[in-house]
Design brief:
- The chain has 95 residues and is an alpha+beta fold.
- The protein has 2 domains: 40 residues; 55 residues, IHF-like DNA-binding proteins (HU Protein, Chain A), CATH 4.10.520.10.
- It has 3 helices and 5 strands.
- The strands form 2 sheets. The chain has a 3-stranded antiparallel β-sheet.
- Helix 1 packs across helix 2.
Length: 95
């Protein structure tokens, strides 16, 4: 099952005893802060969770899978995520 933004809002609502509207505002604010940092090319580290990293990819040769036609893929920025050691350990039952 996918954990959605609505699930996060409901979790904030129940854990912090905030109204749902306020819980949604808190979540939206946090997500907006993260998005702004990533847009500016900055990495975002959340201790105990992981790191969102902005990476630059160079242009490269590619192929259209449906036609087999060769083409050039332009350079672009991508976001990668690397989970923290703590999170990996918890996922694997280590404490």
């Amino acid at each position: 099952m996918t954990f959605t933004k609505d699930h996060l809002i409901n979790s904030i609502h129940s854990r912090l005893d905030l109204p749902k509207r306020k819980s949604a505002e808190v979540l939206e604010s946090v997500l907006e802060l993260i998005k702004k940092r990533l847009e500016n090319g900055e990495d975002v580290l959340i201790s105990g969770f992981g790191r969102f990293c902005v990476r630059d990819k160079k242009s490269r040769k590619g192929r259209n899978p449906s036609t087999g036609e060769d083409l050039m893929l332009r350079s672009r920025r991508v976001i990668t995520f690397k989970c923290s050691r703590k999170l990996k350990d918890k996922m694997n039952g280590k404490d």
